[in-house]
Amino acid sequence: MAVHIRMSRHGTKKLPFYRIVVTDHRSRRDGRFIENIGTFHPAGDAKGLVLDKERLAYWQGKGALASHTLTRLLKKQPATPA
Hints:
By secondary structure, the chain is α/β, with parallel strands linked by helices. Strand 1 and strand 2 form a beta hairpin. The mean pLDDT is 86. The protein has helices at 53-61, 68-76, and strands at 3-12, 15-24, 35-41, 48-51, 65-66, 80-81.
């Protein structure tokens, strides 16, 4: 099973927030996931990126691949601990 770390979109129209999830690569964008490891709020209240770095390191150690968008986001913004 190929495991990916990617963002799942939630929220309302024109006001999204994203959950950072570990999922099987065959699952839909907002479908089943194995574990929720963080959130990302692109608009608004200074929450920004909240991420459990220990779980991210664990899954990457198991061979999970982060999506291109998530990789850019991790380089660009410092994550606050969950």
